[in-house]
Design goal:
- This protein is an alpha+beta fold.
- It has one domain (2-89): Beta-lactamase Inhibitory Protein, Chain:B, domain 1 (2-Layer Sandwich), CATH 3.30.1450.
- 37% of the residues lie in helices and 29% in strands.
- It is built from three helices and four strands; from the N terminus they run αααββββ.
- Strands 1-2-3-4 form a four-stranded antiparallel beta sheet, with no helix packed on it.
- The longest helix is centred in the N-terminal third of the chain and has 20 residues, at 2-21.
C-alpha cells in the first residue's frame, strides 16, 4: 500500500514537471481573446508560467511573456486586469 501511494505521489510530481516545461503553441495563443481576464488567460495557457512580467508606470498596463526553448514566444498586455493586446513570434 505504501509503495502504491509513493508511486502515485512521484507520478503526480513528474507530471507537474513535464507540464510546466511544455512549450506554448500557436493553438494556445489563438485561443486568447481581447477582454479576457488574467485568470482566464492562465486557464487557457495551463501550467506554463510566464517567463517575464512587467508593469509600465505611465499607463496602468501589465504584461506577461511566455518563451519556449527554441526562442519562440508570445506576450500579452493587460489594462485594468483585462487582455488588451497580444503578440507572438515563431510559435508553431
Amino acid at each position: 500500500m505504501r509503495r502504491v501511494l509513493l508511486l502515485v505521489v512521484v507520478s503526480m510530481l513528474l507530471a507537474g514537471c513535464v507540464s510546466s516545461r511544455m512549450p506554448v503553441t500557436k493553438s494556445v495563443y489563438d485561443k486568447l481573446r481581447v477582454g479576457m481576464t488574467q485568470s482566464q488567460v492562465q486557464a487557457v495557457v495551463g501550467n506554463v508560467k510566464p517567463s517575464g512580467h512587467a508593469t509600465v508606470n505611465e499607463v496602468p498596463v501589465t504584461a506577461d511573456t511566455w518563451e519556449n526553448p527554441d526562442g519562440s514566444w508570445f506576450n500579452v498586455k493587460y489594462r485594468d486586469g483585462k487582455l488588451v493586446d497580444k503578440m507572438q513570434s515563431g510559435l508553431k
